[in-house]
Structure formats: C-alpha cells, structure tokens
Amino acid sequence: MKQAFSIAAKRYGKGVGMRKENLSHAIAGTSTPLSSSTGTNSRFRLNRLSALVLAAAMALELSGCGQAKDTPASQAAAESDSGKVVIYTPTEDYLIEYMQQRLDEAFPDYDISLEYYHSGDLAAKLKAEGADTSCDIIFDCEYGYLESLSDNLAVIDFIDTDQFVEDMRSPDGKYMPVDRYSGSVIVRPDLLAEKGLPVPQSYADLLNPAYRGLIEMPDPTQSSTGYLFLKSLANAWGEEEALAYFDQLDENILQYTSGGSAPVKDAVAGECAVALSLTFKAVDLINEGANLEILFFEEGAPYTPAGLSIVAGHETRQAVIDVVNYFYSDIIDDYLSTYLPEQIKVGQVNSVENYPTDIPYADMSHNTPDVKEALLAKWEH
User: pTM, whole model, 2 decimals?
Assistant: First the structure.
C-alpha cells in the first residue's frame, strides 16, 4: 500500500569529504671518509681501525638479534596497550568532524583519529593489511562491505542488540547499526497537474506512456542510490522481472543521472516531474520551499544500512571498548536525531520536523559486493 508525505525538514547532505592526516619524517646523516696514506705504519693503523669498526658492527648485530623488528605487526602490538584508537570510515566530512569533536571531548587522554576512505577502498585496504592493520574500528560503513570483511572482524558481545530493530541486526554480531538512509519516488504535483496527469500510486503506474520524458533516476552502474532501486525490486519480484520492468521504464526515462540526489534537484528545477531519488535530499529541498511530494510504494523504500565493526584482534583493547560503548550509550541518540533520523532502534522517536516516521522499508537482503557486481552486469541502459 502506497504512503505519501509532504514534508519539510532540516538540511541534510551526503557529500563525502576527507580528513587528511599529515605525517613528516626527517632523516639526517653525516659521513666522514677515511683518508689513506702510504707506509707500513699507516696501513697498520688503517687495518686496525677497520678491525675495530668490524668488531663494533658485529657486536651491534648480535645485540639486536633478540629485538623485535620495526614492522606493522610490532607497531600494532606496541600500540595495543596505549590510548591510540584508529577509526576507518567512508562517512561524510561533517559527520567525521562531529564524531571527532565528541570523542575528543569524552576521551582527552586518548589519541583518536578518524581516517576517510571510500567504502570499496576501505574494504580492499583492510583485506590487504590483514592482521597488520592499525585500524581498530570501522565506522558508518555499508553492511554489504562489512559482510565481505567478516573474516577480518571481531564479534561485538558487549553491546545490547535488543535495542535495535530486527532488520538492522547483524546475524553474527560482527557489526552494530549506525544509521540508514532511504530512496523514494518524489514528484512535482504541480507539474503533473499542469499536464493533466495523476500522481502515480505504484511502480506499474510509471510505465504509463503519459509519463514519457518526465521521469529521472540515477544510473545503477554509477550511483549506489540507483542500484538500491534495482536491488529492492530484484528482491521483491526476482531479478528477471525487475530487469524486464526497467527495460519498459526506460521508454519513459528522460535521463539517468550519475548522482543519487540529481533527479530530485532536477524536479525542483522543473526538468522532470517524477524522480527516483533520496528521501533526505527531498526533505532538504522541501525545507527550502520546493513543492515536492514523497511517495513510498507497496514494495517498500530501498535503503542502505551502515554499521560499526571492530577489527579482529583489537576487540580486547580497553580504549577500543570505551569508544564503542560511548557511541552506543551517549552519542547515538543525538547522532540520529541530528543527522539521519531513519529508524534503527526500537522505539526510536524521529524528532526532525515533518520527516516521515513510518517508512515502509524494502527487503534489501543479500546485498553483498559480489551480488551487486553480478546484478549490474545484467543492466543494459
């Protein structure tokens, strides 16, 4: 059953920024060459000096045999009892800034850093680093990538999972929910009225030739938002039927965009009347005065869940435990109410003005990188 909302809310953004850490290294060295001279005494002094240098070098080599080499593994071990915590995250720059400020205030004696990587790069980096990684915590990463990293992650057994709604819970306890954001069908009711067209009530309605040239959606091969729509219908109807539907919808598509928020921006600009786009971006634009209506169809709103994980081997570090506990005891409610208020917790109250509170979420299961790659290989538009 379709649900429609006309909403106005605070501004949200999903642009990704990078927080760079600058490292500098200085290595200085001097050398003084030995001067040679002729004569037996000079050669004797040179040979004696050479022997002394050789003996000293051998002594240093022997004394170092029992010492640990300066490798990433030994560095990680050296940090294991320190207050240093490294967090890898693909989240937005403003969220990185928010988290850094909250953690610095809560743990002035800890050295906590958040390092940005794109989701795919983050997963590849951790797989390559293995046990030698300096990363302790992964924050706000899509579930699909976390599931692909399962062998690299520890079970988190000190957070009460009963506080989370069922579809956000990890089956093996290797990640905890952080947030989720949804897609929706967003329309310009005034433009539709001008053309004598009804507000669509289902995905099937969008196939009406009367909507030809009035619909935009993100390209699933370029935008994760576009892929969410494809995956949600593949789960609801099966891959074959979903792909056949988009083959038919293609007749009515004005253009495929490279970004998830572009279709709703184009709707505001009057370039299209129907946009498959991001719910929170529609909220943003409505808050700025745009005439938009947000629709959720029977198949539910496609969405991306993101979570927090601890890298295996780092789960016993007290500093890591403290940071994770602090997020779920003190930060999460403020984080959700301020930034991405869609439901992840049981009884969660969405206090953002007029934001949809009863979003019917789609089935987004089996959404791993391998499944995504296979499904996108069948996309032909």
Answer: 0.69
User: 61-117 pLDDT, tens per residue?
Assistant: 434 444 433 434 434 444 555 799 999 998 888 889 999 999 999 999 999 999 999
- Asked if 364 and 224 touch (Cβ cutoff 8 Å), the reply is no
DSSP symbols for 8-67: -------------------------PPPP--SHHHHHHHHHHHHHHHHHHHHHHHHTTTS
In DSSP terms, which residues pair with 185 in a beta bridge?
A: 276, 295
Query: What are phi and psi for residue 17, nearest 5 degrees?
Result: -125, 160
How far apart CA 238 and CA 230 sit, in angstroms, is 10
Q: For residues 30 and 259, what is the distance between their CA atoms, to the nearest angstrom?
A: 55
The CATH fold assigned to 3-11+182-303 is D-Maltodextrin-Binding Protein; domain 2 (3.40.190)
Q: Bridge-partner residues for 184, per DSSP?
A: 277
Segment holding 230, helix H or strand E: helix 224-237
Task: Tell me how far apart the alpha carbons of residues 135 and 119 are, in angstroms, rounded to a whole number.
Answer: 14
* Helix, strand or coil, per DSSP, at residue 86: strand
CA distance 131 to 312: 8
In the chain the beta strands, taken as DSSP E runs, fall at 3-5, 84-89, 111-116, 137-142, 176-187, 215-218, 253-257, 274-278, 293-296, 303-310
- Architecture in CATH of 73-180+304-355: 3-Layer(aba) Sandwich (3.40)
